[in-house]
Write a structure and sequence with these properties.
35% of the residues lie in helices and 14% in strands. By secondary structure, it is an alpha/beta fold. Bound molecules: zinc ion (ZN) (2 copies).
Length: 286
């Protein structure tokens, strides 16, 4: 029944929700009704994308089951509008023609990360807030699925694992370079390009967006850096499936000069992110 409710809620989203304001496109803010019995949401979205960030799990598993290698990038806070605004700063990512995809509510990192890793909605994986770290009993993440298939796996994170997963992440604490944890994450990813399934979570786009606002030049510069990192990693991945998406988007906020971007609302900027799936170098099972 819960699954049915969740599905219904998501389907409702697909039909009617208005979006909230972007820096370039202005939509009216709409109130979000939140009912404890249906934590997905009670808001509706017009022209919702066909894709969801939960596709990451299903697309990755499908490729692994077909004997393919899979490389996944999760770009924290890389919203659809942010992508469009800074498109000239990401020649590699834009060349892969992203499609819009729907995040989950609330659009915050642990909730969306759990969905990306399990293919489940929050009501089913059990992560609803930043305080939640442990998924529901019986939930299987993509790392466990890959291990069951006998595939080698590496999971690259920033300074913490964010939520508990079946595989301990390789952490990449900031060693004092100019790019937060992004440089360390890139180095750890580069050292693990020989595995069958590599999951890499970059954080800098979100961090810079919180500080400067999602449409600031500083954010574009960080996206350009990560665009270059991803190009290098993809070109050195050899062959297999590559999936690139985000956990949530971001919108500009006012009132705090030290925090000009945020994400937690059911609105277009927070909820819609890019999604890329592509094949590089021919599949592994050819
Ligand atoms: Zn995030
Ligand atoms: Zn954030």
């Amino acid at each position: 029944m819960k699954k049915l409710l969740a599905t219904l809620c998501v389907l409702l989203c697909a039909f009617a929700m208005a979006a909230c304001g972007g820096s370039e496109t202005s939509y009216p803010d709409i109130p979000v009704a939140f009912e404890p019995d249906c934590p997905i949401m009670a808001a509706l979205m017009a022209d919702a994308p066909m894709r969801s960030i939960s596709d990451t799990f299903h697309d990755a598993l499908n490729a692994l089951e077909n004997g393919d290698r899979v490389l996944v990038f999760l770009l924290d806070g890389w919203g659809w509008e942010k992508f469009q605004h800074h498109i000239d700063m990401q020649p590699f990512l834009s060349s892969l023609n992203p499609e819009p995809a729907l995040s989950v509510y609330p659009p915050i990192t642990p909730v969306a990360l759990a969905t990306v890793l399990t293919g489940l909605q929050p009501d089913d994986h059990g992560i609803h807030s930043r305080a939640d770290r442990r998924m529901n009993d019986g939930v299987t993440d993509i790392f466990a699925e890959a291990a069951t298939l006998g595939r080698t796996v590496a999971y690259i994170q920033g300074h913490s694992g964010i939520i508990q997963t079946s595989l301990m992440p390789i952490l990449s604490p900031d060693a004092g370079g100019p790019y937060g944890t992004d440089g360390e994450i890139f180095e750890n990813a580069r050292r693990n390009l020989d595995v069958d399934f590599l999951f890499v979570h970059f954080h800098g786009i979100d961090d810079m967006g919180h500080t400067y606002g999602p449409y600031a030049e500083e954010v574009g510069v960080r996206i350009a850096l990560i665009d270059g990192y991803i190009q290098y990693l993809v070109e050195n991945w050899g062959h297999g499936t590559v999936i690139i998406t985000a956990d949530h988007g971001m919108r500009r906020i006012d009132g705090n000069p030290y925090r000009l971007g945020d994400h937690y609302k059911f609105c277009h900027e927070d909820m819609i992110v890019p999604y890329i799936i592509t094949q590089v170098g021919g599949s592994s099972n050819e």
